Amino acid sequence: MSSAHSVSFALSVQPITFPSKSIPAEKTAAVELARLTGAACKAGTRPKAKGFNIALGSRGWSADATRAAQAANAEHWMWLRLTEDGAGEIIASEGSGLFAAARLLVHRLSTTAQEKLASGILIQRSFAMNRPIWDGSFAQYWRTNRKFSPEHYAATLAESGFTHIEVNSLQASFPYEDSVPGEYYSQFYNYCPGFNHFIDTPLTRGIWPAHYLDANLERLKNLAALGRKFGLKPSVCLYEPRSLPERFFQRYPNLRGARIDHPFRSRLPRYTLAQDHPVTKHHFRLATLALMKAVPDLDAMSIWTNDSGGGFEHSASLYIGRNGGPYMIREWRSHDKIAEAAGKSMGAFLRNLREAAATVNPDFKLSLRIEPFKVEHDHLKSELGRGIHWEGPSLLARGYELPYSHPKYKDQLGVAGGMFHCQMDEREKPELARERAQGIEPILTYAAGPVWNQEPLIGIPWPRMIHARLTQLQEIGTNLISAMGGLANTAAAPYWPNPIAIRAAQFTPEIPIDEVLADEAVRLVGPRHGPAVAKAWELFEDAVTHQPIVPLFCGFGWCWQRTWDRPIVPDIEAIPAADRHYYERHGCFQHNNPGVNDLGKDVLFELITREAADQMVPRFDRKLLPRIAKAEKHVARALTQAKGDAQATAVLADLRDRLRAYRHWATTLRTVVAWCSGVYGYLASKTARQKQRHEQFLQHAIDIELENARGFLDHFENSPTEFMVVSATGENTFIYGENLGDHVRNKIRLMEKYRHRKPCIDQHILWRPAEGQPWPEGFPTK
């Protein structure tokens, strides 16, 4: 298909027929095309020769479609045909293709493709599987976001070329988990809830309340039903094997497996089941069968582990170190023998789940995130294949270190799987061939939106980077992919071009992305203002590509660390604890976490060194923020020129508001690194003159942040655009609530009051006693 400007064009379509005994996706596609064209629509037992027909390819409703697919040796395809008198058909190999084709027919076919419609066109998918994983807004920790439409989201997935939808999601805004005062750890069970939050077996019955399990399982089934409506196959992403509460192990002490919690963030040791015990194996088989009974067409399961309450016994990356129950390996074995035993045990665990699921769905796909298992890597891979896959950002993955750096700042490493992973190492393609020779089909991940990249913003455009990543994956022959974080709140970002880039890479990879975006801009606002919108996307993305990576803060750490609303002053703990409570109460803080008073640290992680901070501040000042200003000026001019055009004004105003939000976000991100540069520099100074210079630098950064905070407050409270996710049920550690404005006012007040204190960090915070529990007299605290 070649490209020319495309706009929605008035289709003349004959009455639409879909199968009487249809699957939901066939009816949905037919109803959608009828809505878009005004055609009549009804079910029928056979295709109408002079009508317009919509059906799965397996029904044999179009000999032309079947011949075209066979001639192209196509496995995953869509067939579109429309004659001048409105007859024709949409036929697809999968249900999600039907809805995508209906939208494509009306909105997004190039002029050249439209000219070929009379004889029919075959469109093949680039990827057999494209599923969201860790889907922030639809299923995971942003599931309470206001103005979110599950139906709009599912429709956007199908239209964009996704094949699956993630359905394991809690009904409540928090998980039911045992906890103790003063710890945060139980909230991590929000992440990718596992079997225990939906299913009990005779072994675990009574541990979780039945009404809690039933509510969660009902939500899971409802989300799966919504996916079916658009032909999307249900999938889940679970942390497993996950811990059980101590009261369980008091009942069954010989089933105690590995301790898997993070000893800094938890106050209550947590253990998994001994995974090699036959009782454990039977429990997980029953749990899998129960889940398959609830959702018989469950098609894929991704296992994440060794984090957030889950972990495999005796694997090296457990937070607590290698440990486990008595059944896997005896004492005094070598490190490699332990790694071998752990790898084989993981393989047996995965096969047990896969074999149970396959009794219901023989095509069931099970995958394991591979990065945590650097030590067990080779032993584990020898256990995979036969429906069991590994999942990760690169075929070169062995642990978390990969040869990918920021496209603009080569010293910034660790971008694999994120938004800046838009290059392809030449070793990837031959490595894929080696994996397949061993019977393994890897699932490679890519970043699709803000989750883990630009939280909590939504609708920030970087379609070229996405398209580059997907095109490179397609060129090396990747067949299975996963979109980290999903697409966030699509209903609140109706003009966001990232899904358009994903759709283009899936269905029309031969068309250059610049032409795709130019076409989409014209479709949105027409030929007069389309070029201005396309240019705005280009300028916006140019700014984004120059954004430095600030570890933790660019992703989930933004909300963890309460970055919008915490006062950034030279001595954070000069602010009384009572005044800090409004933001600390939902922060991922412990009383002795260095992150309480040091923006560059979290638990024992050194997030931002002085050297890195010194390097990043000028990158914000010279590279990123001027480019945002340039994009804002372009959009302001375009808005003036679009006066009187309601649609063009709506699209450009949306971009204006997201650019402003991004500027506020980037400026606060700059303040974080400026704080590290100034405070660390002051504390390392040897002379009064050096200290004075760093103090002046800090005061200038505080001036910038105060002005920025006032601007953000105005934007948050008055912008008509939903530019960030906001919880409809109150804030928590992962998402802000509607009271953020009040919190920002507190931030401004406290920054003005405490800005002139001398820079100070209590370096001994690690050794503090818990609040209200002082150490006995005479014991050291430093």
Protein architecture, described:
This protein is α/β, with parallel strands linked by helices and about 775 residues long. It contains 21 helices and 18 strands. Strands 7-16-15-14-13-12-9-8 form an 8-stranded parallel beta sheet. A 6-stranded mixed beta sheet has the order 2-1-3-5-4-6, sandwiched between helices. A two-stranded antiparallel sheet has the order 10-11. The longest helix is centred in the last third of the chain and has 39 residues, at about 645-685. The protein is globular and about 90 Å long. Mean pLDDT is about 95; it is low at about 1-10.
Give a quick precis of the structure.
The protein has 782 residues and is α/β, with parallel strands linked by helices.
Which residue ranges are poorly predicted, with pLDDT under 50 across at least 5 consecutive positions?
A: 1-9
Mean pLDDT: 95
Residues in helix, %: 40-55%
Give the count of helical stretches: 21
List keywords for this structure.
782 residues; 21 helices; 8-stranded parallel β-sheet; 10% strand; alpha/beta; globular; disordered N terminus; 6-stranded mixed β-sheet; 18 strands
